[in-house]
């Protein structure tokens, strides 16, 4: 598996850590004493980190959506394959019954199976 690609569980866990719009607005609208928040550099670093997290969350949401679309396509394809397999089994069963019926009838009419030396196909005697 590719270590550079996030799986669905990792994407969902990242989304849980994303701040809500309300939390973002509270941070952006903060007008209190910046000194009480520690150094201004820490606030700037936090904002940069928050932007990085937001970008990662948006990307994670896109990936989760793409994964879901692909999963839906796979499920649809699997259902189609299952339907085709079931129909093929039914057709094979019907063909085998028909073949058995014709073989019984041929045997009643005197047909005996023999393998010719030149080929492996049965022939009538």
From TrEMBL:
<dbReference type="InterPro" id="IPR010471">
    <property type="entry name" value="DUF1068"/>
</dbReference>
<dbReference type="Pfam" id="PF06364">
    <property type="entry name" value="DUF1068"/>
</dbReference>
<protein>
    <submittedName>
        <fullName>Formin-like protein 21b</fullName>
    </submittedName>
</protein>
């Amino acid at each position: 598996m590719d270590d550079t690609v996030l799986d669905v569980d990792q994407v969902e866990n990242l989304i849980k850590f994303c701040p809500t719009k309300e939390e973002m607005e509270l941070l952006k609208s903060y007008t209190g004493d910046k000194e009480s928040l520690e150094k201004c550099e820490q606030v700037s670093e936090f904002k940069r980190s928050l932007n990085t997290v937001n970008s990662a969350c948006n990307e994670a949401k896109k990936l989760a959506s793409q994964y879901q679309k692909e999963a839906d396509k796979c499920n649809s394809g699997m259902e189609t394959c299952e339907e085709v397999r079931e129909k093929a089994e039914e057709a094979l069963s019907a063909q085998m019954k028909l073949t058995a019926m014709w073989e019984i009838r041929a045997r009643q009419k005197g047909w005996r199976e023999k393998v010719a030396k030149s080929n492996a196909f049965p022939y009538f005697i």
